[in-house]
Amino acid sequence: MGFATEQSIKNGRMKLFDDTIDKTKNWLPQDGTVNYYGKVFNQKEADHYLEKLLNNIEWRNDEAIIFGKKIVTKRKVAWYGEKPFEYTYSKVTRRALWWTAELLELKNSIEKETGETFNSCLLNLYHNGNEGMAWHSDEEIDLKKNGAIASLTFGAERKFLLKHKQTNEKVDMILEHGSLLVMKDRTQTFWLHRLPTSKRIIQPRVNLTFRTIVR
Q1: Distance (Å, rounded) from C-alpha 127 to C-alpha 17?
Q2: Contact of 33 with 189, CB cutoff 8 Å
Q3: What global pTM score does this model have?
């Protein structure tokens, strides 16, 4: 059984999800753990959250310092948490905004589903398939070492790739509208991940990565 949104509970119903998906399956052959939960929201609920996130989040173009030069991306980001946490990546420091109602609903739901706890969320808005993410790992010193990162997808389905840092072995999967993926254990130490671009995709995708800040 999957989890229910707050409104679902108020309406007196619980959702059932596709039990054919093995949530305990580790998609990595070694050195880490990646679990894919599939669609944890039905179409109507996923559409609802996509609309809320597109319109209620304080989106800003992402920034990075590369070889001393400031780069501004078309992709937009937002950083939220239970405190005004500072989080530095790509040599740029961001200060967290307080949770929105929708982000709190989502955080509480995935914590119940996964048994993990999170205190912050980095959101990315990809307007279409021309926007993606290069190979990287989330191992900044601000993050809990070997902690879980829960990734929610709303909007366009996109391919997600992982590559072992030493062997170059690759794993790929499709992240669906309303789906949940969790990376944990030594994944960030030994694996890179990437969101490749695709000219075929014309719809937006919002990705939420719930994390634990320790500083």
Answers
A1: 28
A2: no
A3: 0.87
